[in-house]
Amino acid sequence: MYEFLIISYLIIAIVIIGLVLIQRGKGADMGSSFGAGASATLFGSSGSGNFLTRATTILGILFFVISILLSNLGSKPSVTSSNEFNFIDDVVPATTQSNEDNTVPVTAPLVQPVQQNSTSDIPE
């Protein structure tokens, strides 16, 4: 189901890009840029849309619906049926090693020999 939604989501996105690139804008006429009579409908109400605008609208709605579905499916934790945790009570518990004599081991401090390198200003 998830794979089908992803594939359809990508196909719809590509088709929307193609449809938007094919369509002409409202002000694409040459006369509208020079103040001819066609520019009156540039910001006004236009008639019913043609096939390309209707298809773009429907595909845009599908795009958003599928994106909401994919986000909901992706946010749910996936349930895996693994036999790894079925026998968790049968595992032997870990034991700790106790210190019987309560003595702290004494270690001598480490002293590193100092090396004199007079040719370099970089400390080692």
Mean residue pLDDT: 74
What's the order of the H and E elements?
A: HHH
- Terminal CA distance reads 61 Å
The number of strands is 0
- Are there runs of 5+ residues with pLDDT below 50, and where? none
Radius of gyration: 36 Å
Explain what this protein looks like in three dimensions.
The structure is a single chain. This protein is mainly α and 124 residues long. The protein has a domain at 1-25 and 50-75. It contains three helices and no strands. It has helices spanning 2-22, 30-33, 51-75. Helix 1 runs antiparallel to helix 3. The mean pLDDT is 74. It is found in: Cell membrane. This is Protein-export membrane protein SecG. Residues 96-124 are annotated as: Disordered. The chain crosses the membrane at residues 6-22, 51-70.
Features:
124 residues, mainly alpha, 3 helices, 0% strand, elongated, SecG
Write the layout of secondary structure elements.
Elements: H1 2-22, H2 30-33, H3 51-75
Helix pairs in contact: 1-3
In short:
The chain is mainly α and 124 residues long. The protein has 3 helices and no strands.
